Structure formats: C-alpha cells, structure tokens
Amino acid sequence: MATPRDPYQVLGVGRSASPDELKQAYRRLAKQYHPDLHPGRNDIEQRFKEVSAAYSLLSDPAKRKRFDLGEIDANGSESATSAFHRAYANRTGRGRAGAGAGAGPDPFSGFSADDIFADLFGGGGRKQRGTDIEYSVTVSFLEAAVGGKRRISLSNGKSIDLTIPPGTESEQKLRLKGQGMPGGGGGLAGDAIDELQVEPHPFFTRQGHDIHIELPVTLPEALLGGTIKVPTLDGTVALKVPKGSNTGTVLRLKSKGIADPKHHTPGNLYVKLKVVLPDPPDADLTQFIEKWSHSRSYDVRKKVGLE
Q1: 95 partner at 20 to 30 Å CA-CA among 127, 194, 225, 288?
Q2: DSSP SS3 for 224
Q3: Which of 157, 176, 200 is the last residue of a domain?
Q4: How far apart are CA 229 and CA 215, in angstroms?
C-alpha cells in the first residue's frame, strides 16, 4: 500500500495554516475533484478521497496536534514510534519520560521485541475509530426552505439520499453516522459531515424564517387597488392591493414563510410593492399627466427633507 502524502501538501497549505485557510483550501479542491463532475474517472475519485481524508485529519484540532507531534500518521493511525513507546510503557509500567532515567537494569529484560510488536500490530487488539470526512453540498433555496432529498456520492463509493430538513440554513451541517473513513482494528467507521450551501433565489430573500419579495404593480393597481397573484413556496396566492398604494408599500402574507422547527407556526412572506410605469410610455397617460400637473403639484422630496 502506498504511503499517504502529507495532508498539508495534499491541501496545498503550510503547517501554520489557520482553520479558515484549511476550510477554503478544502472547499476549492473538493469542488475541483468531486466525482459527480468527473463520472468514470477513478483517478479523480481517488484524489477527492485523498483531499477529504487530509481535511478530516487537519480540521480536528486534537488530531492535527497529534500529527504535528508525530504521534499519528497521515491516515490518522498511531505512528510506529508512538505505538512502540506506548507498548513499552504498558509492559514496564513506565512513562516515556522515565524510560531513560538513571542506569538501572535493562529495560527490555523479561520480554522480547516480539512481545512489544504483538501489542502494536496484533495481540493488543487496539480499536481506532475512523476519521470523519466533510463534504460541501449545494442545495436550492426551495429545497432548503421546504425540505427534500438530495442524492450525493461519498468518497467510500456509496451514493445515498441525503434528507434535507425544512428550514435549513446555509452552512448548516448534517451528520451521517458511519459514512466516513473505516476504523482500524475493527473500530467503528467515522462519520460523513455534510455542510449545506444554499443557492440564492431569483426573487425571494430570506431573513430568519421570513421571506421577502419585491413585486412590480401597474399604476392602475397602485392607484385604484386590485387583486394580484403572488408567488409563494407552495404556489401562487391572491393578494389584495389597497387603493393608493405606492412604491415601498409592504403587505404581509401570514405563515407563508419558512418552517421554524422550534415553533409550529412558519414565518411570514412580506411583499414590497414597486410601481412600474408603462414601457413604452403611453401617449394618453402622458397627455393626461401634463394637463393634470398644470393645476396640481406635489413635492415628494421636500416632504422627506431632501430640499
């Protein structure tokens, strides 16, 4: 089996890289080498697994420290040097610091090298949990809002349906038990941790569990009132526009927002009106406004202190 590469080299970062720098490097490489983008390319899939394993090790502060100290290798397994000291300490009842103190008797008397390596590679039966692997999964605004399923490919070759809970927010993480790297010595497998990235919507924006939308209305609808259709997460609904509405008028559709797991009532949908004139300009309307403006005028800028 080939010796795994240094995880810092795999991610292309220095040993002093911050957690944010590690995450940025991982995301860039994970997108570049994701198997879904390169179907049938085993070399790309292996590269993706290598990148995922490297980030899984270095993103765990405790494992990263142990790797930097030489206590574990790039696979997350105990290094031979560290394991030898542990086996020696178990046999002699001594810590590493005291192993060389004083003259004393031969520290290896009474047992052979075979005894030590039996502890390391066989007789000890030491189990190690597999490392977690982090993935970045992009979901649509609607998938995140109402929930759904997304089929994803894992670095272990499996394809599974990821359940996206209603009300999911960007950078929320979902944990898939036992879908990470395999454990050592019969230990449990690690987990797959999926960080969700929510795509922006063409006209919906989210604020907490409320949704906001800017909706164009005609001049007659704004002046005279009327009923218009408004898109929501579960289809269009009718909304009554009051007479004399203006650009910036906000109307509320109760409980038409995003589900709130902590409360039974969903958020609201807020509709901000935007009055739009005919395009191209209507000649009759222009003529009427010209006539109307000679006898009536109003100063909208002075009212708000701009003049």
Answers
A1: 127
A2: helix
A3: 200
A4: 10
Tens-level pLDDT at each residue, the chain (307 residues): 456 789 999 999 899 999 988 988 888 888 888 776 777 788 888 888 888 888 888 988 988 998 888 888 888 776 655 655 565 555 555 544 444 444 444 444 444 444 444 444 444 457 888 888 888 899 999 999 999 998 888 877 788 899 999 999 989 999 999 988 888 888 898 899 999 999 999 999 999 999 999 999 999 999 999 999 999 999 999 999 999 999 999 999 999 999 887 777 899 999 999 999 999 999 999 999 888 888 877 777 777 677 6
Note down the domain range covering 247.
205-299
Q: Is 0.70 surpassed by the pTM of this model?
A: no
DSSP code of residue 282: P
User: CA-CA distance, 208 to 243, in Å (whole number)?
Assistant: 30
Residues 137 and 191 in one domain: yes
CATH number at residue 232: 2.60.260.20
**Structural domain includes residue 31:** no
> How many domains are there within the chain?
2
Whether residues 233 and 286 share a domain: the answer is yes
Same domain, 181 and 215: no
Please report, as a single letter, which amino acid is at residue 167: G
Q: What share of the chain is helix, strand, coil (3-state, %, to 5)?
A: 30, 25, 45
Residue 284 lies in a domain: yes
- Which of 257, 141, 240 is closest to 196 using CA atoms? 141
Q: What does the DSSP assignment read for 143-175?
A: HHHH-EEEEEE-TTS-EEEEEE-TT--TT-EEE
Domain boundary among 200, 219, 250: 200
- CA-CA distance, 178 to 191, in Å (whole number)? 5
